[in-house]
Amino acid sequence: MRTRRAEYSESTRQALVDSAVDLFTKRGYAGTSLDEVVKRARVTKGALYHHFSGKQALFEAAFTQVETRSIESLTAVVTAEGDAWETATAGLRAYVRKCLEPEYQRIIVHEAPVVMGWERWREAEEHFSFGLLRTAVQLLVDAGEIDELPVEIMARLLFGALSAGASTIASSSDPKRTGREVERAILRVLEGLRKK
Amino acid sequence: MRTRRAEYSESTRQALVDSAVDLFTKRGYAGTSLDEVVKRARVTKGALYHHFSGKQALFEAAFTQVETRSIESLTAVVTAEGDAWETATAGLRAYVRKCLEPEYQRIIVHEAPVVMGWERWREAEEHFSFGLLRTAVQLLVDAGEIDELPVEIMARLLFGALSAGASTIASSSDPKRTGREVERAILRVLEGLRKK
DNA sequence: CACCGGTACGTACCGTCGGTATGTGAGATA
DNA sequence: TATCTCACATACCGACGGTACGTACCGGTG
């Protein structure tokens, strides 16, 4: 049953997460104080500690929100019908674009592995971007487009390359041009894996 | 002239850096307190703040020490005479092994980009591992081994892939096996870029 | 050798921040 | 309407990064 109190509560929680995403993106995890988070959300630390067990948990909530919203747009691209190769490359391009959004870049790519610990980050990513990427690679193998190889490993390498590529674009003086170059380079790598 | 005071001072500084490398490796940047660092070095915070402007500066000193010591062994491999292809692949293997050392993995690969900021990290890496990798890629292009392509970009992608590969190995339940798989996968990627 | 200046620290302290304990009032329940 | 409960607010604590200041000792000078 949907009571009024539950709505208020959910709204408060959402405000906290939104505030957290915003500040973590701008100033990073260590540079963000909880006092500031609650101030922006127009609540107090009491509210924060009622909804979350601490700063780490708040970060994970922010992480989940950014990932959940990201995965929606990406899934649409990757699950589209049609040629496997076309689908996969479209997915790559979509992911690179996603990595360029400040929230994704800062929270998911840069901060999360350190804040959550690489192990925990890896585990969480199974259900999000990385899981999607691995699925895409698996599809290519199944479709016979690329050589037989350990999908898990290759997906890891690609994931790392994509993240590095996105960071390069983001800090470039000419993002447009760098973006095209990164895209071409990644496609070139994939072409290299393609069966003749 | 090498005075006694200068030697004592240098020794103190070195003890601080060693202590910092050790603790940053075990507990990460945020998880390491300066009180603990100075305790291990058997000095006080006064000494620390005499030698370094703050925690960040201490981290950069630790970063530089780990990188400087790493670069020596790697340079030997990459500057060896002989076939460019052989040299490059040997360099890749050497780098992956280096990434498996806890100090390198934690401080250089995982923490540094967040603690120093990606921009500053990128700048520092120019003189260390990344600079070496780019040189290796450039050599392959010059030797006509791989296709013409933006060396900078390709080096970035490879760097990301290698880091991800190393992290995967490090957290694997069977590092030996995963290590071989990662090596093979990376060589496969490089083979794909090779001219026919 | 006496003196002095500066370097290389040690000590005491401050502000900030993550986290906790407890109070409280609005809304659900009977 | 009385009570209970939950969703916060308030007040406070300890840890930690950083600063201000005191001091001992080394090295040069007359």
Automatic annotation (TrEMBL), chains A, B:
Keywords (alphabetical) are: DNA-binding, Transcription, Transcription regulation
Keyword Flavoprotein assigned: no
Q: InterPro entries, per this entry?
A: DNA-bd_HTH_TetR-type_CS, Homeodomain-like_sf, HTH-type_TetR-like_transc_reg, HTH_TetR, Rv0078-like_C
One short Pfam name that applies is TetR_C_41
Outline the extent of the HTH tetR-type domain: 10-70
Name the domain of life this protein comes from.
Bacteria
Q: Which residues bind DNA?
A: 33-52
PANTHER family according to UniProt: HTH-TYPE TRANSCRIPTIONAL REGULATOR BETI (PTHR30055:SF234), HTH-TYPE TRANSCRIPTIONAL REGULATOR RUTR (PTHR30055)
- Which protein, by its recorded name, is this? TetR/AcrR family transcriptional regulator
